[in-house]
Amino acid sequence: MKVNIPKAWKNQLNDEFDKVYFKNLVSFVKTAYKNDTCYPKADAIFAAFEYCDFKDLKVVILGQDPYHGAGQANGLCFSVQDNIKMPPSLINIFKEIEQDLKLPFPNTGNLERWANQGVLLLNATLTVKAHEAGSHQKQGWEKFTDQVISTISENKEHVVFLLWGGFAKKKIKLIDTSKHDVLTSGHPSPLSANRGYWFGNKHFSKTNAILKKLGKAPVTW
Fold first, then answer.
1. Can you tell me whether residue 17 is helix, strand or coil?
2. What role does it play (predicted)?
3. Which of 15, 36, 56, 65 is flagged as catalytic?
């Protein structure tokens, strides 16, 4: 596994790469990709950092695992490759945007366009074995991505964190809420959304309202 993280991010996270847990994680991932089909493609593992420059970062969305179906994961949480059927959670995200901002349902589930506007689409675990959800959890990824969140909290100001579902909400302990905005809701998965915990959260208009108040450009969702 090549840690192809842009220089600005690498400068922020440099201490992590020499730690024992990260070296063990690299070894695990190399072996996993050699022996099994894993997602995303090896060159897209750190795509979230490549598409969203540290200096441009203004919104963080947290996911848990990459999609584990063929051709889906592209290294950005909730996002899929162009021309790939949208998973249910992503469909519900777009339905909420439709209701909230009156924007048309998009033709693609590829969220690179969000990342290019300063939205970090970060999964807690950055790799997964094909067709085995959660298969690469507890190997060190969570420790690394927790450090990413803590680093953003410490070294940036006025970032909007969107924490969807119980897993993501626990990450609030890593965020200095005195200098960042945190919006929480249920997860966009059908189980949560159909129980009334997702739709109507208006996170997309609320995020843009916060950004405008700060004098930052709103996100074109």
1. helix
2. Excises uracil residues from the DNA which can arise as a result of misincorporation of dUMP residues by DNA polymerase or due to deamination of cytosine.
3. 65
